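From the pipeline queue, job 12 of 40. The input is one protein chain; the requested action is below.

Action: predict structure.
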Amino acid sequence: MDCCTYAAPAILPVLCVYIPMRVPGLRAEHQPERLWPGRPMLQQDESFSSWFARVAEMNGLLPQELMRALFPRHHLGLYDLDRAAPGALIERLAAKTGRAAPDLRNATFARWAGTVFERDDGRTKLGWLPPSGAASNSEGGFGQQVCRHCLDEDRTPHLRLSWRLSFVTACADHAVHLINRCPSCGFQLLPMRRGTKRLFVDCARCGDDLRSVRPERASRQVIELQSRMLCNASDLWSMLDGHGPILSLAWFEILERLVRLFCVGPQARPLRTHLADVAQCATHAIDRLPPIRDFRALEPSGRASLLELASWMMTDWPRRFVGACRQVGVHAGLIDKHGRRLPYALHHAIRWNLFDAETVTDDGEVVAARAHLEAAGIRPTLAALRTLVGRSLDGRGHLTAPARTAIAWGTHRHWKLQGVAPEVRAAARTAAHRAGMNLGVWVDRALRSALLDATISPKSVINGTGEQETITDRSRRHT
């Protein structure tokens, strides 16, 4: 056991936390810090959360209890210790364990600030740093990645900080893919949830030994690509083949956008299939990938397949990227949907190769297309004109015909109740809320019911297709 001293009674650590030893004659600020009995060494590349859990175990506490002992008003579930460990927590643990505070701080995500992510305020999502078990407590949440061979060979089982990165999918020492959930019950691996006796080795839900898992073998290409990405994460500059050196922060942002392009959207499967045939890599894993919005929730082998495709597209930049996008019809809007800032290398490739010919630039072309549709007896709606022209009509919707004819509606939020007494208006809103309806739907149904009950002679109205029907017929159709 790699600690300086260790005491068996479980109550002793709690007393050490709350009742420090005092030296008579010394002022409070000069009193020496009393070290805890269990103070494990920080292993090489060990994450701060792993070390924190081992400190709690060696002092006879659960991680949650250790956090409450240090900060009574704080709850461990509110923190991702690898990402946003409070500075006061690191200083307090350094004083009580005799470890250097800079070493503990270097065991967090702070070591990758400026390379993998720009800055972290602890609240926003980070593309390559998923929360470990913080997203949900279900089988679909994020889990801590581990290598079962490393846990089996470690004299003191511990978690590596690099296992928290989304682009780390395999163990280079054993050439196997990592696992992020229990193969027996499918539950995510949560290192901070202690439901078993053996830390980091047993599943927190079913208690099965994770070291008995037979992981999937990782190819040599996956190991080499992962090593290259880890080198980029440790350096300020990275080489983009065909373009030149760029900031590692920009390199990882381009890689993330390409991986997300393979996950969800109408272009995802055609693009994956095309690249699998051209790049000739991981076709068996690509076919099994489900459509998913957050690629971080994929299994490690699935993420490795997408990273291989993205890495292939980033070679000979931007020729391969532009060629693949043109082959399957990927345009600029699918890559940058929200108009956010893009790295210059990606923005330049999109602007000069995937953007110019996507939008109609002449109003006369739209007018001529509308006249052609009207001559053919086709209503010149936005969808019909876009199909005929084959390009987007961005900013020219005023030149198209509406999709359907409808009765004019009001503009005020509660225009349906204008002229109604305030108490009646409030009661209508309350009734609509209790019925689980929109206010307009509730008022429409109430008026139809009142007209039918009063046997008012039907009035003709215009339906959604432009045809006329009576109120009675329309009510029966809705019913």
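Job complete. The two ends are 74 Å apart (CA to CA).
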